[in-house]
Amino acid sequence: MTSHPSLPSRRRVLMGLAAAGGSTLFGLPGTALAAPAWRSETLRAFTGTDGSRAVGGLVFGPDGLLYGVHAMGGERGLGTLFRWSTEGGYEVLHHLDYATDEPAEPESGLIVGQDGLLWGTSLFGGAQFAGTIYTLSTDAAMTVRGEFGQLNGMRMPQAALLEGSAGQFYGTTAESVFRFSSGAGGQLKQLHRFKPKTDGASSRAPLIFGPDGKLYGSNMMRGPKGQGTIFRLNTDGSAFEVVKAFDGKTDGGDVRAPLLLAADGHFYGCTTSGGAWDRGVVFKLSASGQYTVLHHFAGGDNDGAYPDGGLITGPDGALYGTTLEGGSSPQSYGTVFRITPRGRLRLIHRFTENGADGSTPTGSLCVGPDGQLYGTTQSGAQGLGALYRLSMR
Asked: Is the pLDDT of residue 30 over 50?
């Protein structure tokens, strides 16, 4: 199988859905969903000085503007925090710099907190260079809220945060599940440390809440069948259990993307590898562990390959996602796809080698208040990817 960069994905991608006219995550059972035509528009071709290697997807902030994160580039090569708007265009809000114990080289996107701040994690930075939790305000003030290192025995978070109640945030490192209390001084607590053989290891997707109020997440590697797991646990760290173990064969393997909890009570997601052609799958999972593959990616001209970002629901009620490759042959540069809950998949956009919107789409798509889809690519354009928008024709 082709080797790909390890790219995490982000959590909140459904902001603006109500404004876009969506009321439920899926259409009624048995309802045929019309497949609209879409067109791509490049909003920004990244140059490196303004950031490169966008990670984790995008999010609309409390001010209605679009925010994102770069893992590299900027003035010091350690990433940037940026935003975009129709009126103001593209703006770098902060150039990251670990020399001052700031966040550096983040591998996840931002979420909007109940306090109106944008919250994120970084792989490096902080006093022990083991990663941070930070906030960004809409007036561009960046503040470190928590640090990883020897004092709490955790390091290098790669996933976005999940907010609970009363200022509690939940997240993962490659080795553990943690809780961060955002009160005075901020406090990090390890809730569970993964046992690779039984639990899996290398968690890169953000946690979500299940219908039972428990935390659900995934590990990319190891576990009982060797190719990763989906797990759950209580918010106090108790009752950890594996819901699904992947074998890397027909059921897929390597879960990098966040799960999506739908209105029908099922989880939907993707694996980056495995499946009938070892190019990943789209799956459905019940809380009781019943697992169904909805689509096996095959690559080539008419299918994607190696999905990296999570699924979102579009304004038409179908699910949307991206793949790192596929859409053309023999060379392929990635796709955006639409799939119904019954597994009917259609490509709505193919990236090309010299396209203005870049290639190799990363992270989850984001639905805007205007009902359009926003995303980022990591290559192409000027060589460093682009910020793009997909609109219904």
From this structure: no
